[in-house]
Amino acid sequence: MKKAIMILLIVAACMGVFTSSAIRKSEDDSVCDELSRTVYDIVEESYINYGNIKYSKYKDIISPKDYSNMYYLYVVDYSDPDTPYVDRSKIYILISYHTMPTTQITGADEAVTTYTFERRYIYNPEQENQAENTYDEYSYSAAIVDGCTVKWRRLRDGKWHIVSYYQPICDF
Known about the structure:
By secondary structure, the protein is an alpha+beta fold. The protein has a single domain, classed as Roll (Nuclear Transport Factor 2, Chain: A), CATH 3.10.450. The chain is built from two helices and five strands; from the N terminus they run ααβββββ. Strands 1, 2, 3, 4 and 5 form a five-stranded antiparallel β-sheet that branches. The longest helix has 47 residues, at 2-48. The N and C termini lie far apart (75 Å). The relative contact order is 0.14.
């Protein structure tokens, strides 16, 4: 009888451990999905807002600098240092997309989200004949950037916040 009780207790303990780890995995998957969707929304929103965080619903979880850097269809206007990006109406967009981000939990209160984007456009500051513009080194820009990385941390308030953003430079 003691042997049967001992076996029953061992089986119950093992089931508890397996059930607990299954619940933990389910919670991690839920957090990963939520953080991935949030990064997707931020990238989309920063595209719509030209990287300007003052119009963002996420300004409480991301810094203005990281938000601005997540605007992947930027066109630098080197002629005007006070305006970092030119008006999108002055570019002819050939390709513009980003992948669905993927997130991994890296610690008790840390996670990393990665995604890829591609952009190809013709810049025409005079806004004349955009579609007929040639692909010369001054007007054509293209980039496929793999490995854009968002680092998350859960703070004391229990909310996840973006603590850093990294985008490799791959213009060609």
